[in-house]
Amino acid sequence: MQDGVRVIPGHVSRFNGAVLLDDELEKARATALSRDEKDGLDSIERHLALAAQRRGIVASRQGWRETLKVDVSDGSAITAAAEALMTSDYTIPAGVCSAGSVFTYTLMGRLSSAITTPGTFTFSLRWGGVAGTLIASSGAFAPDPTAAATNLTVSVDWYVICRTPGATGTGIGFGRIWWSDFDDATVTTITGNLNMMMAPTSAPATFTMDTTTGKALSPTYTPSLGTASYTNHFALLESVN
Asked: Which pTM value belongs to this model?
């Protein structure tokens, strides 16, 4: 490694994903190091970038995967018949998102429902809090009404990509939901529940993604009746790039 440049055998060098000939590298160094040290180091970056541009080479995104939020304790039980956060909000700061920014959210918890009147429940992801813009939502899952469900494991995965940043930017999101207690009274009811394991169940669409102000990425759970209970045990929010 020389001056932030990885030298590769065979008379070529690599800079920010661009392959440069050694004579280009030496010319850049000679030009840069003719100045004082600080300006020289900055000039190396500039001259190498220009050399890469002349060769028609574009560097990669230079991104990395980053953990933004992870829960280390159980959440509170959700029992009211209203949309509620599955875990505490995490705010994506203003200006962080660019075209192609991707976020993933993994949540796992336990769900219980009553016999005879289990109601239904829906999982959603929102941009800007529990009352924010809807990114995607599952269908209304119907538990088995012939037996109570007790502390069954639920797993939810969300995927969000920013397509265009800005005050009226756009994004699109999708989800996958797994659990093990469907209304299986008929082929129709069980098929309907299985089809809802993808969110949205049909017609994916973009949403307005304002990236100019900090916005919470908010996973929610909505039971139709107060006879069900959900408790979140695990949440992992990651920036993929």
From this structure: 0.74
